[in-house]
Amino acid sequence: MVEQDSLAPLVQKKCVAKPKSKISASRRLSLKILLLTRATEDLEAEKTAREEEKVRYLGEKLPPLQLIGLDTNDLQKICKEIIEKIDKVDEERYDCEAKVFKNHREINNLNLKIMDLGGKFKKPALRKVRVSADEMLKALFGSKTKGSMDLRGNLKSVKKEDIKQEKELTMEVGDWRKNVEAMSGMEGRKKMFNA
Predict the structure, then answer these.
(1) pTM to 2 decimals?
(2) Alpha-carbon distance 97 to 142, whole Å?
(3) Are 139 and 131 in contact (CB under 8 A)?
(4) What would the DSSP string read from start to end of 129-164?
C-alpha cells in the first residue's frame, strides 16, 4: 500500500501530456520551408557581395597593367614596382601574423591566470617521512586494515637442507682445471654420454 501511494505522483507526472502547439503541422512545415529559402537567398547574397568587394579591393590595389607599346626599360621599372609592392605586402602580413601570435599567447596566459584565480590551491612543501607499512595502510585505508601487515612473514622461507645441497654442488665442481682435463679427449666425451 505504501509503495502504491509513493508511485502515484510519478504516474500522474508521466501522464500529463505536453500542450499542443497552436500551429498545424502543415503550417509549421510551410514556415520551415520559407525560412530555409530565405536563409539560402541570404547566403547567396552574402557570397556575391563578398565577390564584389574582393574585385573592388583588387581593382584599387592592383590597377590593370598597360604593357602594350612599352620598351624594356619601362617594363623593368614596372617589375621593380611590383616587387616593391610584394615586399611591402609581405612585411604587413608578417607584422599581422606576429600581432595575432602575440595576442593568442596573451589570451592563453590570461586564461591560465583566470583558471588559477578560480581554484586557488597552493601545493604544500613536501618532506621525506619514514613510514612503516602498517602506518601507511592505516593512513590510506583508515581503521579498515586487519591487524598488522608483516612484510617479512610473506617472504619465502629457505630450509637448511636446500643450503646443504647447494654447498655440496659447489664442492663437487671444485677446481675447474681438473674437470677440463678429465673431460678432454675421447674419454671425457664418453663420460658425458654415459652420464
Answers:
(1) 0.33
(2) 57
(3) yes
(4) ----HHHHHHHHHGGGS-S---TGGGSPP--HHHHH
